[in-house]
Design goal:
The structure is a single chain. By secondary structure, this protein is an alpha/beta fold. The protein folds into 2 domains: 212 residues, Malonyl-Coenzyme A Acyl Carrier Protein, domain 2; 62 residues, Malonyl-CoA ACP transacylase, ACP-binding (Alpha-Beta Plaits), CATH 3.30.70.250. It is 49% helix and 15% strand. α1 packs antiparallel against α3 and α4 runs parallel beside α5. The longest helix has 23 residues.
């Protein structure tokens, strides 16, 4: 029987009525979060729909709601998964599920992460989408300037580039001319690129003050590199902001470890769609051998 992995989504997750009801079911955590964050998460979702999309707020709210979804899922199923993995911000939720981060202390850590990353303005990110990975990578390599970094290897059909706004706009035009789809992401900076180095350095200082443990047996796969977290949490997490998300490699590593069953903790499908694309390309490659 294959193993199971629960997946924590990244910052792009939308919040709505389901998250409000989730928080109302977990009133103690909602009140605790308000004390730590200085605002009501429910009010932020209900009344400030544009504000809640900003990095400063989206990260702690995403962390809190994703982990509450995870806890409810565990309670329903009566057991924990074999593995957890998170995409960018979601990696902190995965580390909490894996017992490395205390949830309540993690709220403040993610609050600081969101504040630090929200200060890195001026950059943008764009997804390049197509049905052939080699074609995507060729179009990127031939049409981006040296100012641009690859930020996310999300799937064989989606790669994200990151960099200064002018350079990205020029690259978008050239890549679109090749027939590929380009989609500008709604983020406040050039995340997972060299332009986040100052933010990365600031977050490392917060990690140096943070106490990590290991309270359960659930294994955590990094999305910075295809390796399991062990005693290396600060080292991997400390470079995550500035390094690309290698989602394809990490998911393939989990498949190699006999994990074929992936469940997104919030019941969504954004991460699962990317994973299904990875599985499809992997199966196709196997048939062509």
């Amino acid at each position: 029987m294959g193993k199971k992995t629960y997946v924590f989504p990244g910052q792009g997750k939308k919040f709505g009525r389901a998250e409000i009801e989730l928080l109302k079911r977990n009133e103690r955590i909602e009140k605790l979060a308000e004390d730590i964050l200085g605002y009501s998460v429910i009010d932020k979702i209900e009344k400030e729909t544009d504000e809640v999309k900003k990095t400063e707020f989206a990260q702690p709210i995403g962390y809190i709601t994703s982990f509450l979804y995870y806890q409810e899922m565990i309670a329903r199923k009566g057991k924990t998964p074999d593995f957890v993995i998170g995409h960018s911000l979601g990696e902190l939720g995965a580390l909490t599920a894996g017992g490395y981060i205390d949830f309540e202390k993690g709220i403040d850590l993610v609050r600081k992460r969101g504040q630090i990353m929200s200060g890195a303005d001026g950059g943008v990110m764009t997804a390049v989408i197509g049905r052939n990975y080699d074609r995507i990578m060729t179009a990127i390599s031939e049409n981006i300037s040296e100012e641009i970094d690859i930020a996310n290897y999300n799937s064989p059909f989606q790669v994200v580039i990151s960099g200064p706004q002018k350079a990205i706009a020029e690259a978008e035009e050239k890549i679109a001319a090749t027939g590929l789809k380009v989609v500008r992401l709604k983020v406040s900076g050039a995340f997972h690129s060299r332009y986040m180095q100052d933010s990365c350095d600031s977050f490392r200082k917060e990690l140096d003050k943070f106490s990590f443990g290991k309270e359960n047996d659930t294994l955590v796969m990094s999305s910075v590199s295809p390796e399991l977290y062990q005693e290396n949490v600060p080292a991997i997490l400390g470079k995550q902001i500035v390094k690309p998300v290698r989602w394809i490699e990490s998911i393939e590593k989990l498949i190699d470890m006999d994990c074929y069953d992936f469940v997104q903790v919030d019941g969504g499908h954004s991460m699962i769609d990317m994973i299904d694309d990875i599985k499809f390309a992997r199966a196709l490659k196997g048939r062509q051998r």
